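To whoever is covering the structure queue this week,

Two jobs came back overnight. Logging them here so there's a record in the thread.

Job A:
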Amino acid sequence: MRMGRRLYSLLMFAVVSVLGGLLAAGLVVPIAGMATTAGTSAVTSLDELPTALKETPQPQRSKLLNSDDSVLAYFYDENRIYEPLSKISKIMQQAQVAIEDHRFYEHGAMDLQGTLRALVSTSQGNTQGGSSLTQQYVRLVLVEQAEESNDAAAKAAATENTLARKVRELRYAIAVEKQFTKDEILERYLNIAYYGDGAYGVEAAARHYFGVSAANLNLPQAAMLAGLVRNPVASNPRTHTQVGVQRRNDVLDRMAELNIITADQAAEAKATKFNPKKVKFYLKGCANSKLPFICDYALQVLTQQATSLGATEEERLERVYRGGLTITTEIDPKAQKAAQKVVSKNVDARDPAIGVIVMMDPQTGLIKAMAQSRPEMGKKKGQTYYNYAVGKGFNGADGFQGGSTFKMFVAAAALENGFGVQTSFHVKASKNYQGETFQSCSGSFKVRDRWVVDGPEVGTYNMYNGTAQSVNNYYVPLEQKVGLCKVTKLAKRVGLQLASGQDIVDEYSNYPSFTLGAAEITPLSMITAYGTMANRGTKCNPVILKSITNTDGGKYDVPDANCKQVVDPEIADAVNKVFQGPFTSGTLRYAQIPGYTLAGKTGTVPLNKAEWSVGYTPNLVAAAVISYDNNKKYKKYWKSKYSYLRGVTLPHSHTYLTGFGADAGQKMLKPAMQQALADIDEHDDFVGAQASVLNGDTAGVPSCSGMGWSSCRAALTSAGFSSYVTYRYSDTVGKGGLIGLTRTGSVPKGSEIGVIVSKGAKPEPKPTSTPTPSTEPTRKSRR
């Protein structure tokens, strides 16, 4: 016993000598021989340690905002909101100092009494606290830096139970005390300390446990938070309420003992109950956002394209999760809510179908809304991890065939190449294009296999009524005249993109079915392409980010819309004129919105697998699509439905679908656009189209005088016209002879000319017998 006391006294003397010399003169102090719980770890010379603690900015959570500054999501590794000491309640400051280092404002870098006690205890194999608040701050910074750099060895060194670590902390603490005032140190400590449940710093903790800011913490709340720092897991009041409350009471007792509060105040605070059910979680990441797919798209853009945040994707992601950024979008909450309501009403999340609505401002590219029928991110029924509005490079799905919405690209390419709105073709209800010649980017080719294009329309159609009624057998010949290469290049130029990310020209310039929407594209690229026409030929890339600022108010560059003129304004004006037809007298007439002039197009995919409606004004462009879901779990449902969406009532939403684009227009596009348009303060009108562009180029029809009908057709082909044969009776031209042409003189470029062939003289009508009057009473027919 006596020997133990003598050893203890000797050790205390050694420690005092070491620390005294260390503090007084900074002498080189050998301490390698001192035993530690970690074995042989030691520091041979204090001079070998850095003289200052290299601080890195404390990680802070970033927030993603809607256009009205409401929070869309939080991004963070550590849920922290840095606040100056002036915004942290005085009672919180007092509580933390009281329980961790009550003489903090009286001593220097260390509390000699506490440190001696801890050093001796540790040297005897019993870990004990005693570090000053400054030393604790040093340790937290070192641990933070080690975790940030993913340095396991540095983290172990920062947390090991050794005298070497304490001496190292002490040296740093001395430097910190020289660099900062006591209040500045306390501010840093309160902002870096971990308070459990993922809450770093007192502001995040106050909001999490009590739903208040750190500035408004009261006595029982402050005492509870102050008690958490030492062991935030074991004393967590949410998971261990009794332990947490007892720890709070210990802090209150300590504050009363130090005369910071009175005994009555302590008793009153102890009587305050803690309700774990009122704890508020700020769940991080997009899966927990109310708009997870908008959030995820924004995060993908931040990571892939926001080069101002860092040189690599890893650097950008780290800045987002640790930089305390304020990231603002132009998502209109009213428009988004309306769009989501409309989608969910018509296509339930559990239906074997998919519904999507996307909207943007064509003049800026800023996305206004992005809604889909499965709005929750996850793997449960009715959930998905796919954003159906975007491509695979942004966590999108397979995309959707566009149907007749692609006719706009053919019309635009035609107008751009001198074909006018009066360019006309004789349309049949059904036509097989096998053997017909088309022009790709690598040359002309013939359709080798049977390809029959159907449509109920029969007669002569031009670009106006061919667009309004979405006449397939008008647009295939028009595409044939213009050339697939020019059509697909224009589609790419105005912003249409394949969901796969492949080049649409390389993949589809040899597909005659392009005009009928054979390519799987993204809804977001669809509104980009149509928005180019709405913006008079200026393409603006879709933009989800409006601004990015840091905690100091500094701004980062956001990915730009890169608005460029890609189509002549006069051509776009003509396209807009033509595509008002579907709304005024065509397939979208039931989707008109009173007070607005709209242009757009419907689209129906073969076998009615998907249906589209696209509408736009100069200030807003929107697309609505309903598609069958090709996921294998719905294979059985669709197996018996050869026409897919045609005549189907979806099982959960109970929406009846005709399978044609007008469904998406009337049921989804119209109500969604109506709300979004109402939120726009000023509306622009379409610019009137120039007659010269609408009329296009003209060409003279060659004379076929003296020719047979087959020679006449050959002459028309040589002059750049297509032709068809029509038969009439003639009393002057024998059967099989050429009567004439349906059009002569100067006609619009590319028009189809009818070659009129004689059927011979009209036969005499056969005589009819007079019917015998019936004695039966007349009956009214039933229909």
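Job B:
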Amino acid sequence: MDVVVVESPNKVKTINKYLGRDYKVLASFGHVRDLPPKDGSVRPDEDFAMSWSVDGASTKRLSEIAKAVKEADGLILATDPDREGEAISWHVLEVLRQKKVLKDKPVKRVVFNSITKSAVLDAMAHPREVDPSLVDAYLARRALDYLVGFTLSPVLWRKLPGARSAGRVQSVALRFVCDRENEIERFVREEYWQIAAELATPRRDAFEARLVGLEGKKLQKLDIKSAEQAEEIRVMLDGAKFTAASVEAKPTKRNPAPPFTTSTLQQAASSRLGFSASRTMQVAQRLYEGMEIGGEVAGLITYMRTDGVQMAPEAIEAVRKSIASDFGDKYLPEKPRFYSTKAKNAQEAHEAIRPTDFTRSPAEMRKYLESDQARLYELIWKRAVASQMQPAEIERTTVEIEARNGDKTAALRAVGSVVRFDGFFAAYADQKEEDQEDEDTRRLPEIKSGETLDRNVIKVTSHTTEPPPRYTEASFIKKMEELGIGRPSTYVATLKTLEDRDYVEIDNRRLMPQPKGRLVIAFLESFFEHYVEYDFTASLEEKLDEISDGKLAWKEVLRDFWKDFSGAVDDIKELRVSEVLDALNDELAPLVFPQREDGSDPRICPRCGNGKLSLKLGRYGAFVGCSNYPECGFTRQLGDAANGNGNGEAAEDRPLGSDPFTGEAIVLKNGRFGPYVQRGEGKEAKRASLPKGWDAATLDHERAVALLSLPRDVGPHPETGKMISAGIGRYGPFLLHDGTYANLDSVEDVFSVGINRAVSTLAEKKAKGPGGRRGAPAAIKDLGAHPDGDGNITVRDGRYGPYVNYGKINATLPKGTDPQNVTVEQALALIAEKAAKSPAKGRSKSTSAKKPTKKSATAQKKA
């Protein structure tokens, strides 16, 4: 018996059924090892040695695989047919070698592009070895991403508090979005007029022609700049005689697009189905892994992570049969169509995305599929079928028209087209194929050259030029692929990271950079410009592709990169924060100091009148403040000027009414940390920040009163008699009873939770384990040994939120820090800071008795 390792557990049963009793199929559940998110996982000083860790769930699965391999005759690695799949096979193989269970057993690598019986059995009949070049390319990519992220991110934390991370591809993607926003802000609208004439033939057939020339000169889009000029031309045309000077009918052909790749599928699903890129990949994954059809599980499409645009010969043969059967021989080209990719760094060897069986029509499959699955399958099926059909034949007619009024002349043009043979359009039946959308499909009546045309009406319309649109997910993916940045299979994860970091917001399917994201990219462009250049990032991708082709040594690429990159980082470490802020004040001037309506200096403080506004850095990020602080306390959030009163002042306070119990005024205000409500004035005023998800524009009196009344008494605990209260703290909504905290699911729960649910929630928290005075909470993450060698550094979740622990030192994590993403470098800095504040009781005996080692001091200095 042989053990077969696949990635997804959804494949296990199907593939086991295809292979029979002589095989045991097990799933790795994706990647089994990764670089630990801490300093030292990639070590340039040791020729880029890499340390890998296995999480708890993967440890269990690898043990099951190892046990099965120990009792088996051989191992077959059948992970997905891409670089990541090759890497997973390599990781599994390395772990099994470390466990010494392979001995002299044969190891084979097989790949199948679709989960069908024929594809799986064919792959098993043609095994190969794990491809070392693909593994090297994976190692190089992973090391580069780690080194950029774990070297740049600490620089951001020190120079730009509140910034969360930077990355090799992530930062360039953010630059795309921010550059487009800069274009929009710099854009100056221009007004222009367009003129068209509704004309009629002698046979009374009406059509429309657009003005394209005046007095023998060709008109450009913006040439008619005023209403007076437009009216003068309208009057001239109103009394003109119109003649069809020439009529030209020119036949053209429109060829079908190739079958889908990962990125083109994401783009088409976004524009046609309204799917996000992540939703597209989720649905495609399900179609690939298969579902039960007629009592048998079968994959419906080929592998959905691919750059390839070609179909396998047997698939081309199958689709040609389907075309002849479903549409007729006239729709079938004499020879098959072959495509080549236009993507800058496409290199994947497997097929485009296509149906595994073209006889499974979308109409037939609809009864087996959920709505989104059926819609995406139909999109894939039609595109693949259309790609092998005849071109559409279109007759494009252009009519040049002369208008003459005395000695004044004008030229107009009417354009229309007629589909003479629908060709591949037939595959789309009741819908418009996406490549058709730019085609002018208006039909013109019969117009004869030289005949006089009647004027019905002259139309004058005013327009303004529009700024370039913000990127959608689809246009963003298309641009990234065109420039050869990143891999199509990673674009979804890249966008998700930008969203999670609050660098970008997706609003109405448009990517909008947030102030934090613009601050980060301005910093990187000012001090690390080379590493966020499009050409540099694309050239690095090309080198990775050369590694996968066996043309470059992966460590040579890393050495060349690291030499320059580490030097650039060392230079930036010496910069003072004031120098950074001066550079960002200039780089972000349109965002931070927008022009004022009265023309006054946008950097003069609107409150004191003589201070100078500048970016400042606080614990929670950047804000705009006055140079006369503390005499002048003017501040505003970064980006708030656009919503102010035109003088650079933050938006005005909004009265919400008075408190029903104290009579004090309640006002909505804007502070450096965002909107908040205030009751009363002076030092005694009660203030409460708006919780995440609450919109300041729609905040009413009732919700403001409720927010200011927190913490709220829920009721006495039935066992202790002590009050249970609900509130919103630094780490979100909570319940509190007798010193014990329990998290609530949402902010709304704070105002609605009843006594029964409160008691049960507190009981559940207690059952999970004691905290606080009764003993240290369990570690939720182990960061490894302290450089001093006197115990491990751990991350724990306490009654007041997550913290790092070393010996007797507990240091609270900054607000917004994900405990799972804390690095050793961050932890050392927090521990050192806490120890310095309370040296007497903060240090363990071993810490106070022992001087820091050179390694420890260096690490703390870096942090």
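Note for Job B: The mean pLDDT is 85.

Please reply-all if you pick these up so we don't duplicate work.
Q.
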